[in-house]
Structures are given as C-alpha cells and as structure tokens.
C-alpha cells in the first residue's frame, strides 16, 4: 500500500455531459479487459508496472478511450471490480498522487495543475508496495459520512 501524499478530487458545477456506460473504443496493445464499472469510470487491466512504467500517460493519450473521463489502470480488472469494496480499496490505496495521475493534457493556471480528460489513475502495484487487506464497512448512506473524521483517521494511520 502506498503511504504519504493524499489526493482530493471534486466534481463541481452543472452537469456537462452524459457519462459513458459502455465501452466500444480500443485499447493500447499492453492493456486488456476493459470494464465500465461505474458511469464515466473505466477500469482497465495493464501490463505490470515493472514492465510498462509509462503505460499511464500512454493510456491517457490513447484516442480509443477519449470518451471516458476517469480510467483506473489496474493489475487485475477481475479483482478490482469484484465488489464496490474492492474497487474503492484498489482505487484509493494503489496510487501516489504526485506520480500516478495522468491526463491527456496538463495545464498550469495560477499555481494549480489542471488535467484534460481522460484522467488515468495508475493503480497497479509498484515495487515496494504491499497488497494489504483490511475490512472496510460501508456506511448506510455514503453521503452522510463525516469526511473530515475519515481524513483525520487516515492521517493517524500513516503516523
């Protein structure tokens, strides 16, 4: 599991487009098993990080996935999409925000980095990371969770 920096993602404003729910594009040769797990979120299995460390940026620039705003690049699509719990675990414990988030294009505006979709999160295991598992209980209503408490708990676990 990666330790250290955290990422925060926000979707703000009015609806801009309908999110894709079915994949009909193409993938680079070192990718396979696309799974549209959530609307607008495509999970793709890639070659290992050790064999293809530049696969994240390559996938972000690939025209065959241009319609997808969010792509998770994983070691095993079957494992990452086995359940919502496994998807969340894979997504939030397998990428380092400073190194593993890639967009088709990158802009810097007033000291803020912006990415043009698709945005690829490289959630493949890297050397030196472990595939630890801990049970995560799902609250009754995900929107009522106190996000600040969860963030603080996450920081406490890293100490």
What does this structure look like?
The protein is an alpha/beta fold. The protein has one domain (31-158). 21% of the residues lie in helices and 25% in strands. The chain is built from 4 helices and 5 strands. The chain has helices at 55-61, 77-80, 84-93, 147-158; strands spanning 31-38, 41-46, 70-74, 101-109, 112-122. It has a 5-stranded mixed beta sheet with strand order 1-2-3-5-4. α1 links the parallel β2 (41-46) and β3 (70-74). It is globular, with a radius of gyration of 16 Å. It starts with 30 loop residues before the first strand and ends with a helix. The model has no long low-confidence stretch (mean pLDDT 84).
Provide the fold topology.
Blueprint: E1 31-38, E2 41-46, H1 55-61, E3 70-74, H2 77-80, H3 84-93, E4 101-109, E5 112-122, H4 147-158
Q: How many structural domains does the protein architecture include?
A: 1
Q: Outline, from the CA principal axes? A: globular
Strand content: 15-25%
Mean pLDDT: 84
Which range best describes the helical content: under 10%, 10-25%, 25-40%, 40-55%, 55-70% or over 70%? 10-25%
Please list the strands of the largest sheet in the order they lie side by side: 1-2-3-5-4
Q: What oligomeric state best describes the polypeptide chains here? A: single chain
Please tell me how large the radius of gyration is.
16 Å
Our count of helices gives 4
The largest β sheet comes out as: 5 strands, mixed
Number of strands: 5
| Poorly predicted ranges | none
SSE order in H/E notation? Answer: EEHEHHEEH
Q: Note the gap between the termini.
A: 14 Å
| Classification by helices and strands | alpha/beta
């Amino acid at each position: 599991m990666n330790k250290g920096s955290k990422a925060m993602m926000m979707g703000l404003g009015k609806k801009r487009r309908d999110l894709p729910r079915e994949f009909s594009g193409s993938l680079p040769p070192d990718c396979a098993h696309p799974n549209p797990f959530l609307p607008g979120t495509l999970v793709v299995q890639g070659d290992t990080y050790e064999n293809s460390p530049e696969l994240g940026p390559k996938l972000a620039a690939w025209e065959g996935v241009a319609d997808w705003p969010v792509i998770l690049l994983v070691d095993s699509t079957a494992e990452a999409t086995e359940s919502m719990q496994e998807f969340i675990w894979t997504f939030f414990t397998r990428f380092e925000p400073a190194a593993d988030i890639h967009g088709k294009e990158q802009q810097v505006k007033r000291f803020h980095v912006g990415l043009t979709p698709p945005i690829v999160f490289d959630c493949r295991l890297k050397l030196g990371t472990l595939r630890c598992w801990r049970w995560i209980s799902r609250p009754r209503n995900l929107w009522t969770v106190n996000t600040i408490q969860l963030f603080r708990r996450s920081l406490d676990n890293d100490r």
